[in-house]
Amino acid sequence: MKVWFWQLIISPHMVNLASELAEIGVDVSYIANQEMSEDRRKQGWLTPPLGKADLKLVPTKNEAVALANSAPNDVLHICQGIRGNGVISAVQSALKKSDRKQIVVMETVDDHGFFGYFKRLIYFCLFKVADKNLLAVLATGLNTADWVVARGVNQNKVFPFAYFLPEAESSHNYPKAPSSRFRFIFVGQFIQLKRLDLLIEALASLPENRDFELAVVGSGALETELKEKAEAMLPDRVDWIGSLPMAHVREEMRTADCLVLPSRYDGWGAVVSEALMSGTPVIVSNACGSAVVVKASGVGGVFRSGILEELILLLHKSLLAGKIDPKQRLCISKWASCLSGKSGASYLLQVLDSLYCDSSTVLPPWHSELS
């Protein structure tokens, strides 16, 4: 089997899936428009290794289309998105012209507000045009699979999916002792979309006698504003850590008792997967795609995006449950191995088998309960 992944960057969110597929004998090529975007570099992203997968860079649309046209007929093309995906859109047009099948990987679509109707209409039209050559949609996110089916895609072509990440590894150069306080953690950009302001307000509403703190990893345009808000509402309770390399972020997660991602919208929210794989429970808004795995984990919880009272309730519930002990952390991290690249590679092969062999229903790897 030959599989070509078409991506805009060499993304840690997809590379691990590609490399694990290659590790089990699949002929994998990972094709990217560029190594890494400047925005992601500023967030501490590093270009991940591809293992046995072959890397091809296509800096221009013409190079991307030429490569797509040169692909052997037996190649399975897995493409990033179906709209707003740069040079990959040109690749998908080339695949359609040559009557080749493609699989689309797509995140949750933010269709709130006035423009939501038009987005739904646009996606309906895009899927209708692509239908003949669309082998499957790998839908990452809580309600993404249902949303795609509602846009006219045959439900037998739609599969719940995730971003499958590397197994959690300890960064021995960055040891950190756990805090004696209950430690919440936020990891992300300081932008309105991430709603760190909502988290600060919610924590400030908890009983004053509760012994907790908030660790904040990241940076962004709202840093000064958020620090002033935290100083006024949560004095002496916030640890501003700044941006860190990914391995160091995992260490911070291991010493926290609960990660909170209150985003107004997040296509997935990889920090959620990273936290669970580190053995840390997660509280997340239902506007984050990764809410699907938080629900499945049975720890932490999911609240309706922007609803302060629901977030306060979950934060208080976590506090009452107490700090995470080593046994609990191990149990959570073992369950969350379902979000690893190995698990994702196995699941993708099952999906392909069901498509080509018309086999029974395939369940996503996070379907099993945390014991």
From TrEMBL:
CDD domains: GT4_PimA-like (cd03801). InterPro entries: Glyco_trans_1. One of its GO terms (biological process) is carbohydrate derivative metabolic process. Pfam families: Glycos_transf_1 (PF00534). Keywords: Transferase. GO terms for molecular function: glycosyltransferase activity. Residues 176-306 form the Glycosyl transferase family domain. PANTHER family: GLYCOSYLTRANSFERASE, SPORE COAT PROTEIN SA. This is Glycosyltransferase involved in cell wall bisynthesis. The lineage of its organism: Bacteria, Pseudomonadati, Pseudomonadota, Gammaproteobacteria, Oceanospirillales.
